[in-house]
């Protein structure tokens, strides 16, 4: 590892992305609006992206950069499909709230 | 190391290109046809494309090659997983005879083909990038497939699956990032590096990665999505999802588990939750009134059995896991085919109450359903029984006797749940409930094929030693 090349110590990147990741997890668990939940999921994915980029620099390995681009692409596709599903589900409802989506109780 | 893509690399992914490109053909035919292409045309192209992909994959049997600088592995168990995935996609597609709107059939077929492509990619994926790509290709198409029916429950299941599965992908991805940080490489082979055990990034990354995998396999504490999604999704999609996601994820888990030095302490919690799934999944089956939910909880337990076979990371355990996966595919898809025959578009046949008196009304269907349920429970003359015996042998050999004990206890519980359905079908005092009569020749053929294979596999075990080369 070439951690000495980084202007900021690697541990800071790990700490920051962990914080962002768990903000995302909290958002999915606590918020009831599917749009906010989708945004929180993006937060989780992007926390991983940040880590990939930091480690790519630390290891001088391009694979991390490529992985981050891959994740961004997949996240875009996922957001498109996610928004389409939210529109279909809530077209006939006044409020956007997952607590009303309870035909089936798991 | 050459950095360009060779002829060999393209050959390795040709089955995937056939399946993925076939989806485009289905859509193109739909576009060029006046109005929409008929259901039979879309289904025929879809099944033809899958047969071609499966046949081409079979020609790579026994060859060993690391395509794309180790991103996609040919050889070992990859081709067997690919055949299982293709076969279950064909069987699920054949159930679409009576489901879904005619004008949506081309889109449904194309999505199912893309989903299959993703699972086939997972079967051969050997680095973190291809694992993620395959998993997302499989999942993104499945979100859409869950919501294709016009029922509110179907759309609800799509939303639930989307949010919960994307969250799990987040865990998986974060784990991958940490593993990349620990090893400095995205290849699974780099997990063999000495000195990793001293690195906290490795333990955290492995933990997050396994949480994501456990979710996709629907193991017990992470299974909450599966009953709801199975119940809401259209029946053929449920059938497809129940086998193909398990097959793809099991292949990824196997590659990960076998890359760790000597099994690894990292996996122990994973085997514990596999044990929890065997007991919990079978207990939860007892309370179900919907057959799709019952099969969802059955799937939770069955996934536990398959993971248990891999405990100890022995070469024999891998063979037995694949044998059980193949047996599970035929038993499970056979049961789904019977439900499809009994169900109309509103899926009234999926209620367990719809099976009341089936033994008098449609004796052949009832006999076939009993056969599949007995096989799922692991009764002697079926492949389910042999599979469980093999898994017991593998776990005991690997020194995980407690897993074997849990497997036996779970099987005992599951017998009661399956027998509840059997009793309902053959109770002489029950008046037969009038059910819908649907004609679905493809579904009948699928059920017959599954039944045949469940029997054949008992007497001629497909995987141990005669099909699968020992995995290194």
Poorly predicted segments of chain B: none
Task: Note the total helix count of chain A.
Answer: 3
Helix/strand structural class of chain B: mainly alpha
Q: What's the CATH topology label of chain A?
A: Helix Hairpins
Beta-strand residue fraction of chain B: under 5%
Key phrases:
heterodimer, A: 106 residues, mainly alpha, Helix Hairpins, 0% strand, elongated, B: 472 residues, 18 helices, 1% strand, globular
TL;DR?
The complex is a heterodimer of chains A (106) and B (472). Chain A has three helices and no strands.
Please describe what this structure looks like.
- The complex is a heterodimer of chains A (106) and B (472).
- Chain A has one domain: Helix Hairpins.
- In chain A, 71% of the residues lie in helices and 0% in strands.
- Chain A is built from three helices and no strands.
- The mean pLDDT of chain A is 88.
- Chain B is mainly α and 472 residues long.
- Chain B has a domain of 201 residues.
- Chain B has 18 helices and two strands.
- In chain B, a hairpin with a 4-residue loop joins strand 1 and strand 2.
- The radius of gyration of chain B is 21 Å and the shape is globular.
- At the A-B interface, helix 1, helix 2 and helix 3 of A face helix 6, helix 7 and helix 9 of B.
């Amino acid at each position: 590892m070439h951690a000495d090349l980084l202007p900021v110590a690697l541990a800071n990147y790990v700490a920051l992305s962990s914080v962002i990741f768990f903000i995302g997890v909290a958002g999915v668990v606590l918020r009831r609006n599917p749009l906010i939940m989708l945004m929180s999921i993006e937060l989780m994915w992007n926390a991983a992206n940040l880590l990939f980029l930091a480690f790519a620099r630390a290891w001088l390995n391009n694979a991390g950069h490529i992985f981050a681009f891959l994740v961004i692409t997949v996240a875009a596709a996922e957001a498109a499909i996610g928004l389409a599903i939210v529109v279909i589900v809530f077209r006939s409802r006044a409020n956007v709230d997952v607590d009303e989506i309870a035909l089936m109780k798991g | 190391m050459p950095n360009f893509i060779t002829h060999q690399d393209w050959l390795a992914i040709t089955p995937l290109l056939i399946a993925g490109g076939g989806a485009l053909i289905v859509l193109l035919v739909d576009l060029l046809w006046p109005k929409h292409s008929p259901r039979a045309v879309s289904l025929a192209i879809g099944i033809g494309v899958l047969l071609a992909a499966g046949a081409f994959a079979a020609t790579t049997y026994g060859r060993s090659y690391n395509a794309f600088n180790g991103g996609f592995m040919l050889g070992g168990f990859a081709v067997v997983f690919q055949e299982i995935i293709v076969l279950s996609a064909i069987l699920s597609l054949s159930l679409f005879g009576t489901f879904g709107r005619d004008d949506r059939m081309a889109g449904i077929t194309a999505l199912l083909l893309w989903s299959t492509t993703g699972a086939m990619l997972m079967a051969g994926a050997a680095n973190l990038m291809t694992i993620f790509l395959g998993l997302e290709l499989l999942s993104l198409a499945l979100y859409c497939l869950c919501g294709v029916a016009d029922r509110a429950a179907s759309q609800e299941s799509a939303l639930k699956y989307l949010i919960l599965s994307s969250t799990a992908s987040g865990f998986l991805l974060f784990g991958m990032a940490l593993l990349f940080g620990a090893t400095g490489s995205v290849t699974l082979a780099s997990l063999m590096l000495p000195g990793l055990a001293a690195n906290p990034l490795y333990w955290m990354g492995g933990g997050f990665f396994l949480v994501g995998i456990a979710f996709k396999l629907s193991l017990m504490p992470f299974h909450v999505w599966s009953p709801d999604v199975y119940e809401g999704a259209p029946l053929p999609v449920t059938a497809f999802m129940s086998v193909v996601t398990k097959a793809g994820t099991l292949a990824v888990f196997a590659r990960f588990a076998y890359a760790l030095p000597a099994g690894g302490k990292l996996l122990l919690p994973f085997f514990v939750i596999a044990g929890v799934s065997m007991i919990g999944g079978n207990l939860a089956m007892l309370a179900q009134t919907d057959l799709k939910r019952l099969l969802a909880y059955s799937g939770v337990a069955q996934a536990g059995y398959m993971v248990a076979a891999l405990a100890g990371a022995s070469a024999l355990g891998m063979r037995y896991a694949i044998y059980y996966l193949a047996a599970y595919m035929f038993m499970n898809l056979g049961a789904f085919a019977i439900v499809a025959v009994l169900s109309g578009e509103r899926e009234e046949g999926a209620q367990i109450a719809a099976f009341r008196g089936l033994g008098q009304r449609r004796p052949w269907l009832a006999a076939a359903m009993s056969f599949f349920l007995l096989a799922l429970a692991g009764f002697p003359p079926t492949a389910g029984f042999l599979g469980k015996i093999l898994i017991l042998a593998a776990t005991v050999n690997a020194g995980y006797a407690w897993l074997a004990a849990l497997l036996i206890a779970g099987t005992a519980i599951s017998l009661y749940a399956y027998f509840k359905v059997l009793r309902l079908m053959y109770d002489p005092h029950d008046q037969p409930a009038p059910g819908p009569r649907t004609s679905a020749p493809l579904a009948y053929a699928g059920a017959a094929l599954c039944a045949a294979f469940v029997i054949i596999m008992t007497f001629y075990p497909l995987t141990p030693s005669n099909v699968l080369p020992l995995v290194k």
